[in-house]
Design a protein that fits this description.
The protein has 280 residues and is an alpha+beta fold. It has two domains: 111 residues, no CATH class; 110 residues, no CATH class. The strands form three sheets. A three-stranded mixed β-sheet has the order 4-3-5, with no helix packed on it. It has a two-stranded antiparallel sheet with strand order 1-2. Strands 6-7 form a two-stranded antiparallel ribbon. A hairpin with a 2-residue loop joins β1 and β2. The protein is elongated, with a radius of gyration of 34 Å.
Length: 280
């Protein structure tokens, strides 16, 4: 049975680091914890399963005879007293079978590097052609994603990447401007106060401008007591009042103006902020 877990698992350079946390309700786990914290147990063993291997020359060390594991999955970590090899890791294939990597052992998951004899009869790694083929396929896929032909140069690819970044940055700027305009409109309509502007802008960044607009539309405009007192007098006036900008319109009338006279609302909005109302 497991006696704990590893928290804060992270990669630090070429090291995989984590903090063991022992089960407080397990008597045996607490004994192991005591020995760990007092330095009587100081080693951990990692069980890994292979995800991806490579025959590329840049991953090979002098005298290496098998393909290089470049991606793996951490299956379990064990606290041990004495490790057989400080640099050794126990590897498993996809079925959970432990891999045997001794000389002469056949293993399809982590195969031996293919060898061939050159013109002088000297054995050499036959990996360069395979590496070039893999690189060519990878480059072809990258160029396709960038919308470039297979004959595009490295400079063409760099230029395409820069253009994508510029478009992304421009799109983000426009998105933020739209979100800010929606929040400013809500402040003008007294649905929210100015000190909440940053809060609602952040909501727009996370949830999107449509969700932000819907959320703000559900908030009723605030109204001062004095405005409520004069409300009867405003309705009693026989002649409709003409406004020059949105801030002159009584708060309780803004929503009705927006719904019943959208063109007048748009005119006053533009007069107030100098821009058209952002469209959905």
């Amino acid at each position: 049975m497991p006696i704990g877990r590893i928290e804060n698992l992270r990669i630090d350079g070429d090291r995989l680091i984590g903090t063991p946390v022992f089960d407080p309700n397990d008597e045996f786990a607490q004994k192991i914890k005591d020995k760990w914290e007092n330095g009587f147990l100081r080693m951990a063993s990692a069980g890994l399963s292979i995800v991806e291997i490579s025959h590329a020359p840049e991953y090979l060390l002098q005298g290496q005879t098998r393909a290089t594991i470049i991606r793996s999955r951490l299956e379990e970590v064990s606290i041990v007293d004495i490790g057989g090899n400080d640099d050794a890791l126990q590897l498993y294939d996809h079925s959970g079978k432990m891999l045997k990597l001794a000389a002469g052992e056949d293993n399809n998951v982590l195969p031996l590097l293919s060898l061939e004899k050159d013109s002088e009869g000297i054995n050499s790694h036959n990996v360069e052609n395979q590496n070039n083929q893999n690189l060519k396929m990878m480059n072809k896929e990258f160029l396709t994603l960038l919308g470039l032909s297979e004959t595009a140069t490295e400079q063409d690819a760099v230029g395409a990447l820069r253009l994508l970044r510029e478009k992304a940055e421009k799109g983000e700027t426009l998105r933020l401007a739209g979100i800010t305009a929606v929040v400013d409109a809500a402040i003008a309509e007294k649905r929210i106060t100015a000190d909440k502007k940053e809060h609602f802008v952040n909501i727009g960044k996370t949830a999107g401008i449509d969700s932000l607009r819907e959320t703000l539309s559900l908030l009723p405009p605030s109204r001062k007591p004095t405005e409520a007192i004069h409300l009867h007098d405003d309705h009693a006036t026989s002649e409709p009042r003409t406004y020059t900008k949105l801030s002159e319109v009584p708060t309780e009338q803004i929503e009705a103006l927006r719904m019943e006279k959208p063109q007048e609302y748009e005119r006053l909005y533009k007069a107030e902020y100098g821009i058209e109302i952002p469209k959905k």
